[in-house]
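Marked as duplicate of an earlier ticket. Keeping the data here for the record.
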Amino acid sequence: MDCRPSRTQDPDEWIATCPTFSKPLCEEVREWMFRWEPDLTESINSNMLCYSLKKRVVSLGAFNDHAEICFYRGGELNDAAKLFNHGEGNMGIRGIKLKSLDELDKAALRALVHAAVALDAQPALPPPPKVKREAWPMPPLLAEGLKKNKKAAAFFASLKPTYQREYMVWVGTAKREETQQARLKETLKALAAGKKWAQRKEV
């Protein structure tokens, strides 16, 4: 999506000042939106022409070489006609990049817009549950090093598991022995100085 400041807050002026290539595309899609969902409110946000009911439902972007129709809850819509060609992996916003309207399945787009409006009346889906990562095994090399450095061991024990994991992954994924030893030396020095992994270069 376009995150630049909006060039205007007037939808008519926004259309009038669209790039030459995408202006006719945006004009046509805007006409469709008026006909298909006349109850939607038109506004400008983040340089996009937005259509809202309870919340923003659809927006229209104008670019130098294409136009784009964005569906704010596209990840929840059944895109049977496979219109989405941008942001397919997103749980939320998905888009349709357009260079021409000739090959666009207009009936499918209309159905998608109607479905998006109907979805706007429903609560948003809860975010997917966080996947708990498996605990990273303590590298024997690091365990041995901590036994010999009580100051480093004490600070390591005080760290949250996330910060401990950073050190364990860094030391444990080294392939060559010289790399392992270099990382262990840097780790013990940083831990003894009370530094987290991201701060180890400050020692």
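See parent ticket for discussion. The chain has a mean pLDDT of 90.
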